[in-house]
Amino acid sequence: xxxxxxxxxxxxxxxxxxxxxxxxxxxxxxxxxxxxxxxxxxxxxxxxxxxxxxxxxxxxxxxxxxxxxxxxxxxxxxxxxxxxxxxxxxxxxxxxxxxxxxxxxxxxxxxxxxxxxxxxxxxxxxxxxxxxxxxxxxxxxxxxxxxxxxxxxxxxxxxxxxxxxxxxxxxxxxxxxxxxxxxxxxxxxxxxxxxxxxxxxxxxxxxxxxxxxxxxxxxxxxxxxxxxxxxxxxxxxxxxxxxxxxxxxxxxxxxxxxxxxxxxxxxxxxxxxxxxxxxxxxxxxxxxxxxxxxxxxxxxxxxxxxxxxxxxxxxxxxxxxxxxxxxxxxxxxxxxxxxxxxxxxxxxxxxxxxxxxxxxxxxxxxxxxxxxxxxxxxxxxxxxxxxxxxxxxxxxxxxxxxxxxxxxxxxxxxxxxxxxxxxxxxxxxxxxxxxxxxxxxxxxxxxxxxxxxxxxxxxxxxxxxxxxxxxxxxxxxxxxxxxxxxxxxxxxxxxxxxxxxxxxxxxxxxxxxxxxxxxxxxxxxxxxxxxxxxxxxxxxxxxxxxxxxxxxxxxxxxxxxxxxxxxxxxxxxxxxxxxxxxxxxxxxxxxxxxxxxxxxxxxxxxxxxxxxxxxxxxxxxxxxxxxxxxxxxxxxxxxxxxxxxxxxxxxxxxxxxxxxxxxxxxxxxxxxxxxxxxxxxxxxxxxxxxxxxxxxxxxxxxxxxxxxxxxxxxxxxxxxxxxxxxxxxxxxxxxxxxxxxxxxxxxxxxxxxxxxxxxxxxxxxxxxxxxxxxxxxxxxxxxxxxxxxxxxxxxxxxxxxxxxxxxxxxxxxxxxxxxxxxxxxxxxxxxxxxxxxxxxxxxxxxxxxxxxxxxxxxxxxxxxxxxxxxxxxxxxxxxxxxxxxxxxxxxxxxxxxxxxxxxxxxxxxxxxxxxxxxxxxxxxxxxxxxxxxxxxxxxxxxxxxxxxxxxxxxxxxxxxxxxxxxxxxxxxxxxxxxx
Length: 979
Hints:
The chain contains five helices and 52 strands.
């Protein structure tokens, strides 16, 4: 299967015709053409001119107050101006929402601890290039300036597309008919500078709108460039291991039954992310007749992203215990009658020091078009017909250059190019091990080297380079739906909503590596790991694969001093908490084009598909729903309610590759494809829902919600085969297994797809009390329970996998997805929001917004002590505090966001369970100041990550920090005009 010869399947006419015909029958069955239409609850919603912080907060409260279920809302403070830099950063202000950051910017989100969140655009599904194969929203490529607001729907309703276990996000763009009559223009220009990147980045937003009540059009364009400092200290590659005492009593207790737990690699990385974003949105509205309106939307996004890192990395090359210290810390019992120890400060006897450079690129592009016809006659019947087409593409590359400062003699890595056997980096440091001081006790993880270490460029050699995990994804989406509304003149039943929907989504993914041809002796092969210390096999005919025994190696010496001008830079410091030395590193920017870079070192590279992570999935759904809406009096209390159900049938066709034991290349990760097969499955879900809103007083609302939810699976979890991770055995493991140190042995595996997985299913319960004590004041408390019936989780199983020679010698951990049964997430949210306009001047411009979420969770996994672990990426506690001031031309805002510790990932089995990696609690501060110095013209400045908060990731114990993601403060200056 080749992704290059792509087609653009669309929803054919017969599908649309069948949908329309079916809904016409549905209209008839509901008794079409009755008399007058009743007023809906939406008629009570106050229309607010949203300009500024106070008006935006007031609109948010208004949206929540008159909603028909449990929801929260964010409204833009002006055209092109959401409260924060990114969509995710804005959403984190809503109770129950937690975000993850990419290069310091908000990217992916959870709602109430769950990433299974449906994202809609103006009420319907759309394709995002950041989440083609996944469900969790990733808004990195979507400019916030394109949106007028976001609704977060937390209680299910029958007429809202199912798909979010914990909630649904509805991104809203502006409508021309909402503008004042005539023309409206807005221009925004910004310049942003980072405290660590020290580069100034531009941003431009342009808006043009026209409305004459009969015809309207809006065009919004947003473009920005950003260079984000994103340093990383600690584990550069995430492998860890438990090593047993053999011939060294490392902790000096007089026995040899203890073990040492450590990460295999530590390093300090200078990392920057460069992003160019473009977003375009065009909306046309036309009043075709008094009863018929047309709305057309075009939503386009494009982002080019390069994540570049360069730095120094140390490891023990799978040797013996490398830490020397007087302060080893006992952590837990091992299976040898001793204990497992860690260390926070040590002298490391390092066998390999690497000059490591890496470039990861992500190019994304998506287009979504929507065509909506709305009918509103004089009778009780109204309705809409909508057709949507979307397409999205994503291209990802990874390119690695692994240079040595050490010679390779420390761990027996040799080369033999026919001119004799020498260490792989003959000019490098060695053969003795390198003393490196290591500490995790301070604010930053640190590495310390001897004075002058790394200053001589002639001692650097590019030993290994490769490009793997590259992929191209593309998807198309077609949706046709028709919705009807029938109004009644009764005391309680107000109207009935009903509809049919059909959708088709096609997803393709091709994963590939780059291989180059090599010949040593009489052996020729295509190679991915172009490692000058690697051998293709027994080239001298002695029956063994051993470089020390005389076999030839591939590649050549690539000294940094011989590389083209501009390829190698001398880098000082390597960021906060870095090594404090100067090192020579290959500039990762020259690696953005993997094919060009790899060919410059080893010519003749070509793409080779990796079938274990290449697949095609076609998904079709048919949906029908009804929802009855009620309003009236219960005694002296007024109420609104809705009850309904949604039926969804899902059909999946999956093209899965069949894999063999042979390989189409040497020293590579690609598997042999022996065939392919289509797998077919379908399932149906009936999802009832109910929402009840009781007005206890004019200002106090009690809400209750119930609903069943179903979330479609990530495409990547359905298709794909097993991929095997291998590494050079080295001397210690080679002795244990009885193999050559140069053999690539299996160390881990990944089962990339399970077509039999069931989707996430849950029953949601919501209860809230809301007090609207004035038009800009709110105090509410909400309780929620998600009873999860089936879910998907990562499991680690031990499985025998073949080494590079096809022989299975031992079991290694294999990560896969499995269905879990049972479990729940429950918690509560508290919100307080108020404008203090009752205070005397000048304090009457103050306002605040506070919220707190408590969402504990449990999973089937336990930590090394047998303690239950939460759901991954869920913080038990999260909170937001915003203090703002708006009076006259002045606007000020200070915002804080807190997340408690969250489970980041699971490592290998240890003790009574598995080793958990946690992200420590974080507290981010942002601020904004604006001044309107003329009518419709303002200047402003904003600061994100005011205190330069970072992320600390620790393994089980909070003092055992293994990784730090260091983000910068970013200061923006801007000017905005509207006319």
